[in-house]
Amino acid sequence: MTADRPRFEISKSTLHLGEHRVAHAQGVFDVHFYRDLANEATAMAITVGDPALGEPLLARVHSACVTSESLMGRDCDCREQLEGALATMARAGRGVLFYLLQEGRGAGLTAKARDRMMVQASRNRITTFEAYASMGLPADLRRYDLVAPMSRLLGVRAPLRLLTNNPEKAAAVGEALETEKIELLGTETIQAPSSPFNSDYLSAKQASGHALDPPGGLAGASPPMEVRVFDPVALPGDERRVVTASYYLPVSLPGRPIDRVDWFRLSVVYDRDRERESVILSRGEHGEALDRIADVRVGLLDRLPFPRAAGRAALARALQEIVDRGSGAVSVDLDERDVATHSARAGDGQG
Asked: Of 290, 336, 251, whose CA–CA distance to 35 is shortest?
């Protein structure tokens, strides 16, 4: 693809928009951007080596987790699975990671945040799956149909060895790939370290059938203040913005030990004018009414564990300022649409 004449491809309703090369200490990765035009969904594929060769290929189908990948939260194992899969592929010299924007096991960011709010309000007496059931949601709403046209556009024909701890996901991915006659050779697990901040979550996943080691009897960490479940309410002073959920996120800022976290109040806000969700991270006595330190945009590339992620770095600086001051808030715009800009810069070596 050249900057003046980009090459676009389409399979079914999935359009390949371009790619972006990222040099990393572990190797060179190509990030491919896709748009499912029928369902208005964005997706990425991160490849190392040539995915179109005939030899078996390591693969992961990864669902987005903005709270761990962009906001640096430590209450799950999603970021560690993403980083572990990419590291494994880099060591092997070949692999593909399909990154699907299916937040909250496909139920969306508000449902995920209300799940966390309910779990924290119960003092971890209920699990994430029980919280979903109480909202009238199934445990998992994710779909993997996009993996087939993305594989076709990448030229993937070889059998895949799937990096996952979830046997139900492996079966669903295998079914989705049947249309392309791509075989699954089996699975490999990705173990993330447990901590007091994710032990309850990992225990719930293990009990649901995920191939995970026991968290080791670690007691779950409690948030710094009591959490209560509430119905959506207008943001103070702005009736066009609705707070749909709020809970405490343990954040590990860059340069800190993995077991050192700072707790921030995370509030999901739905903007009725823009018809989009955003996040407010705050610390102090007055919640969302605190002085705003910064407005930060995190884009698609800020979700990936590569250097020079400008949005994630700006957020880390703003959160550190809040910690130093003892209070404050930062508004985070979750930009899932700015694909064309990244694609136009393909090959410029920036990430």
From this structure: 336
Name the token pair of 121: 């309000």
Helix (H, G, I), strand (E, B) or coil at 14: strand
CB-side exposure of 310: number of CA atoms within 13 Å? 6
Instruction: Please give the Cα distance from 304 to 308 (Å, whole number).
Output: 10
Residue 43's φ and ψ, nearest 5 degrees, are -150, 160
The rounded distance, in Å, linking the Cα atoms of 37 and 43 is: 11
Catalytic residue positions, numbered: 140, 142
Is the separation of the CB atoms in 153 and 9 below 8 Å?
yes
Distance CA 2, CA 218 (A): 52
pLDDT at residue number 195:
84
What does the pLDDT look like over 172-227, one tens digit per residue?
999 999 999 999 999 998 887 888 887 878 777 777 777 667 666 667 788 999 99
- What is the C-alpha to C-alpha distance for residues 230 and 243, in angstroms, rounded to an integer? 10
The residue type found at 166 is N
Which long-range contacts link 164-171 to residues 24+ away (Cβ below 8 Å)? 164/60, 164/61, 164/188, 164/189, 164/190, 165/81, 165/189, 165/190, 165/191, 165/205, 165/210, 165/211, 165/212, 166/209, 166/210, 166/211, 167/209, 167/210, 167/211, 168/140, 168/209, 169/61, 169/142, 169/144
**Domains of the chain (ranges plus CATH)?**
9-344 (3.40.50.10990)
- Greatest alpha-carbon pair distance for the chain in Å reads 59
- Find, among 195, 332, 328, the residue nearest to 252 by Cα: 195
